[in-house]
Design goal:
The chain is an alpha/beta fold. The chain contains 24 helices and 11 strands. The chain is globular, with a radius of gyration of 25 Å. It binds 6-O-phosphono-beta-D-fructofuranose.
C-alpha cells in the first residue's frame, strides 16, 4: 500500500503562513466587513459559492481576495490535494493505527472504483443490500417480535459516533419517518435513558439496535445488557434473537451477546466512529426513514465527496471552509466557532460537529510525533437558532470574545408552516446582519434622544446598547432539509475537518486522548461500589471516593 509523503515542515515555517501573518497584521486586523463591502460592490457574488443544494455565503467573513489567494497557497504548500488523493485511494493515512480512512467508500457507487483493492471495500454494496432487505422486512412486518408484533420502536444503543450520527440524522429527518416507526436512543452510562424508555415502551414492539465499532465500549455494553435483561424478563430468553440487531466490526462479540446472525451487520476498521453513520451504524436511521431515503442520504454525501476530490480549489467548498476556519483559528486567534442551525430538527447537529471536529483535530502532536507549533482543534458549540438567540447571542453581539459563526438555514420548513419558517429566516438574516453591522453608540444616542432623553444623560445607556459589529459569519442556505441535503452538509464538514488536519499536520483519524479516562474509570469502578481501597490517584480522588461511599449508603 503506498504511503502519502508527509510534509516534514511545520505549517508555521511555510512561506504562505508567513505571508498570511503579514497580511493579517498589515491589511486585515483592523479591516471591517462594512469596509470590505463598500470597496467591492460585487463582494457577495465573488465570495459566495454554490454546489449541489448548498449555497454558501462567505462574503460576511473577514477575508479579501488576497486572503483567499494566500490561503489557497497554504493549501498547496501543505499538500492538501495530495492528502485528499491519498485518502480517496485508500492509503493508510491514519498512520498511528495503520489504517485507511474510507468513509467515502461507504457512499461511493461501485462504478466509482474507489479503493476497491482495500479489504472490505468490495463488501460495501453487499452489506447495503443486506441492510435494505432487513429494513424492508421490518417495515413490511415480515420480521416481527417474538409474539408476532410489528417492530416499530427502534432503540439505538451506542455512544459517541455510534450514537450522535443516528440521533442527529434521525432527528433532522423526522419528516421522513415511515408511518408508525419511532426512533429512540440510549447512550449515557447512568442508565436513566433506558429506565425512562422502558417505562413507556412495549417490549413486544421494540427492536434494540446495538451500535458499537468495537462492541466493548463500557457504556454501550452496560446499556445493552440492561436492555437484554428487560427483554428476557418480559419475553423470555428466546426473545433476544428477535429483539436485538447490531452493527459492529466485532463479529465474535455480537455472537457472544446472542445477536441473531441474520440481524447483524458488519463494517470495517477503516470506518472511524465519528464517520460511521454511512455504515451499518446507520441501521436504526434506515429503519425509521426507509432505505430509499437512506440511499439518498448516501448519494448526497457522495456528491460532496466528488466535489471535494475534483473541484477547482477556488470553488471547492470544504477546502474554502477549512481554510477560512484556519484563518480565524490561527491568525485571528479565535478559539471557538459557533454553529447555529435555524431548524429545530438540526438541534443535535452542533453536538455531532463537536465530536467530528474536536475528536478529530483536538491534538497537540503531529503525525510525525513532533509537537504542533500552532493552535489546533477549533472548539465547536451551538444550538438551534432562535433558542440560542435567547440564550447566548448576547455574548456573540457584545461580548469580548471573537466567535465566527456558521448559520445553517433551510428556506422551506419540513412539515411545519412556511409562515413560521419565514420567521426563522428573518431571524437568521437579522442576526448575521447585526453581527456584521453592529449598532453604533452615536446612533444609540440619537435613538435615545428621539425617545426624549437628554443628550448628555444618553451617553452611558448608549454605550451599553452599542453593538461593535464586525463579527464574521458564514451562511449555508438550502431549499429544504432532505436526506440528500443532510448528506451533503455532513460531508462538507467532514472534509472541512480533514483540510484543517492536513494543514496542521495532525492525524484527524485516531483518538488516543479518550483512552486514559476510560482506563482510569475501569480501575475506579470496583472501588466505587465495594469498600476496597483505591490504590491509584491522589488525595482529591481518594477523599471524593470516601464521600461517595458514605453518601451512597445513606438512607
Ligand atoms: O469515545 C471514543 C470513541 O472511541 C469514539 O471515537 C467512538 O465514536 C465511541 O468511542 C464509541 O465507540 P464504539 O463504536 O466502539 O462503541
Amino acid at each position: 500500500m503506498p504511503e502519502r509523503k508527509l510534509s516534514a515542515r511545520y505549517p508555521t515555517d511555510l512561506a504562505a503562513w508567513r505571508k498570511l501573518r503579514e497580511h493579517f497584521r498589515e491589511d486585515m486586523r483592523k479591516r471591517t466587513l462594512r469596509d470590505l463591502f463598500m470597496r467591492d460592490s460585487s463582494r457577495f457574488s465573488r465570495f459566495s459559492r454554490q454546489f449541489g443544494s448548498l449555497h454558501i455565503d462567505l462574503s460576511k467573513n473577514l477575508v479579501s481576495a488576497k486572503t483567499l489567494k494566500l490561503l489557497l497557497r497554504l493549501a498547496r504548500e501543505t499538500r492538501v490535494a495530495d492528502a485528499t488523493a491519498a485518502m480517496f485511494s485508500g492509503d493508510r493515512i491514519n498512520r498511528s493505527e495503520n489504517r485507511s480512512v474510507l468513509h467515502v467508500a461507504l457512499r461511493a457507487e461501485m462504478s466509482d472504483q474507489l479503493a476497491l483493492d482495500v479489504p472490505g471495500v468490495p463488501d460495501v454494496w453487499g452489506t447495503l443490500t443486506a441492510i435494505e432487505q432487513f429494513v424492508s422486512d421490518v417495515q413490511g412486518g415480515r420480521i416481527v417480535g417474538i409474539n408476532g408484533q410489528r417492530l416499530t420502536e427502534i432503540v439505538n444503543i451506542g455512544i459517541g459516533g455510534s450514537d450522535l450520527g443516528p440521533v442527529m440524522a434521525s432527528n433532522a429527518l423526522r419528516h421522513y419517518w415511515k408511518p408508525g416507526m419511532n426512533f429512540h436512543s440510549v447512550s449515557n452510562i447512568d442508565g436513566t435513558q433506558l429506565v425512562d424508555l422502558t417505562e413507556r415502551l412495549n417490549p413486544e414492539e421494540t427492536l434494540f439496535v446495538i451500535c458499537s465499532k468495537t462492541f466493548t465500549t463500557l457504556e454501550t455494553m452496560t446499556n445493552a445488557e440492561q436492555a437484554k435483561q428487560w427483554i428476557t424478563r418480559q419475553l423470555g430468553d428466546e426473545a433476544v434473537a428477535h429483539h436485538f440487531a447490531a452493527a459492529s466490526t466485532n463479529h465474535e462479540a455480537m455472537d457472544a451477546f446472542g445477536i441473531n446472525p441474520a440481524y447483524r451487520f458488519g463494517f470495517w476498521d477503516w470506518v472511524g466512529g465519528r464517520y460511521s453513520i454511512w455504515s451499518a451504524v446507520g441501521l436504526s436511521l434506515a429503519l425509521v426513514i426507509g432505505m430509499q431515503a437512506f440511499r439518498d442520504f448516501l448519494a448526497g454525501a457522495r456528491r460532496m465527496d466528488l466535489h471535494f476530490r475534483d473541484a477547482r480549489p477556488e470553488e471547492n467548498l470544504p477546502l474554502l471552509m477549512g481554510l477560512v476556519s484556519v484563518w480565524y483559528n490561527n491568525f485571528f486567534g479565535a478559539a471557538t466557532q459557533a454553529v447555529l442551525p435555524y431548524d429545530n430538527r438540526l438541534d443535535r447537529f452542533p453536538a455531532y460537529l463537536q465530536q467530528l471536529h474536536m475528536e478529530s483535530n483536538g491534538k497537540g502532536v503531529r503525525e510525525d510525533g513532533r509537537p504542533v507549533k500552532a493552535k489546533t482543534g477549533t472548539i465547536i458549540w451551538g444550538e438551534a437558532g432562535s433558542n440560542a438567540q435567547h440564550s447566548f447571542y448576547q455574548l456573540l453581539h457584545q461580548g469580548t470574545r471573537f466567535v465566527p459563526v456558521d448559520f445553517i438555514l433551510p428556506v422551506k420548513s419540513s412539515g411545519c408552516s412556511q409562515e413560521q419558517q419565514d420567521l426563522a429566516i428573518a431571524n437568521c438574516l437579522a442576526q448575521s446582519e447585526a453581527l456584521m453591522d453592529g449598532y453604533a453608540a452615536k446612533q444609540a444616542v440619537l435613538d435615545l434622544v428621539a425617545r426624549g432623553m437628554d443628550e448628555r444623560d444618553a451617553k452611558t445607556p448608549a454605550a451599553q446598547r452599542m453593538h461593535p459589529g464586525n463579527r464574521p459569519s458564514t451562511t449555508i442556505l438550502f431549499e429544504r432539509l432532505t436526506p440528500a441535503v443532510l448528506g451533503q452538509l455532513i460531508a462538507l464538514y467532514e472534509h472541512k475537518v480533514f483540510v484543517e488536519g492536513v494543514i496542521w499536520g495532525i492525524n484527524s483519524f485516531d483518538q488516543f486522548g479518550v483512552e486514559l479516562g476510560k482506563k482510569l474509570a475501569t480501575s475506579l469502578a470496583g472501588s466505587v461500589s465495594t469498600a476496597t481501597g483505591y490504590e491509584g490517584g491522589n488525595d482529591s480522588t481518594r477523599y471524593l471516593l470516601e464521600l461517595v461511599r458514605m453518601l451512597r449508603t445513606n438512607n
